[in-house]
Amino acid sequence: MYTKERIKGGLKIAEEEIDLREIFLIIRKRTKMIVIITLLATIISGIFSYFIATPVYKASTSLIVSRTQSSALNNSQIQVQDIQTSRMLAATYSEFVKSRRVLQPVIERLRLPLTVDQLKNSVDVAAKGNTEIIEISVKNSDPRKAAEIANAIADSFVENIVKIMNIDNVQVIDKAIPPTSKISPKTSLNIAVAAILGFMISVFIVFLLEYMDRTIKSPEDIKKYLDLPVLGVIPEIKN
Predict the structure, then answer these.
(1) Dihedral angle sign, alpha carbons of residues 92, 95, 97, 100
(2) Which residue ranges form the domains of the chain, and what is each CATH number?
């Protein structure tokens, strides 16, 4: 003997199964549209990444903010206070690197068709963790030019820091070299994202078209939308 709760539960499960079946049938009916939209999005992303988007390369040079020579001569052992002072100086130097006094000579020396603000936007300066090392990175569409600008900025920075603060505790560790790979656009990632978005958009369009389509196409539609019994079906005879 079935109770009302069991009957309701059975009806609910049946409705869920019907809904899932209908979803599957809708997707299968418009599979061609889903495939075309997904492929189109993937192809457009690939064309944009390979042929249209400007490649960007990043070259980096590293500098160390060490103790002054006088401090090193007075005390042969590295003190904790000296390290903390060097780290504070590294943060200060990071801001100084992007100043007009440092970047303007670079523009004039390399004859760059850029303003100071434009060059500043392509330069990133960061202290490496809790170390005494700062890294100067330059982004450019030409890998050799990116390395050349990064090295020129490092040289200009060292020259100006000596003049302004009268110190010589900044040294270049690694000079920038032309990068062999670009940082953007990330072609594989762009294509994968485009494929996923294309698939999601195509599924959305398919269900939107199905929702807007109110035509009767099968006996099941008559029962579903009109709640009328089907007395008979006239098959379509070609030719």
Answers:
(1) negative
(2) 18-48+184-224 (no CATH), 53-67+77-182 (3.30.70.1130)
Helix boundaries (H) for 30-168: 31-47, 69-74, 80-97, 100-110, 116-121, 143-165
The structure tokens 């103790």 sit at 67
pLDDT in tens, 52-75: 999 999 999 998 876 554 444 444
Q: Which two tokens stand for residue 130?
A: 């809790």
Q: pTM of the entire structure? A: 0.68
Strand order of the β-sheet with 57-65 is 123-127, 133-140, 57-65, 170-174
CA distance 118 to 114: 6
The model's pLDDT over 83-114, given as tens digits with 9 standing for 90+, comes to 565 566 666 777 889 899 999 999 999 999 99
